[in-house]
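Changelog note: in this version the structure field was regenerated for every chain. One regenerated record is shown below for reference.
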Amino acid sequence: MRTIGKSIKAPLVANMIEGGATPLNYSETLNKMGFNIILYPLSVLFANTFATMSILKELKKTGTTTKFKQKVVSFDQFNDLVELPKFRKMEKQYGLKKRVK
């Protein structure tokens, strides 16, 4: 990668995939080698898959997810993250009015 970074005078992309062909490096190191765009395209997906598998195994094994309470966002944090209050407001503003029979 050092040879490529020094040899090619064009924007270079480093694609960092855990378990992929390219050895993982810090973005700062890659940038110093000459790579301008550094991608970690599957890291979050891999982490989500690991978390999903872990919590589902625990649920199957014990019948509860209590062990994971400190490892997941709270109900309120999730609602804030997806901006639920904003959508509730839009629902009231633009949604169909309930008809009284």
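Spot check on this record: Strands lie at 13-15, 37-39. The chain has two domains: 2-39, 43-94.
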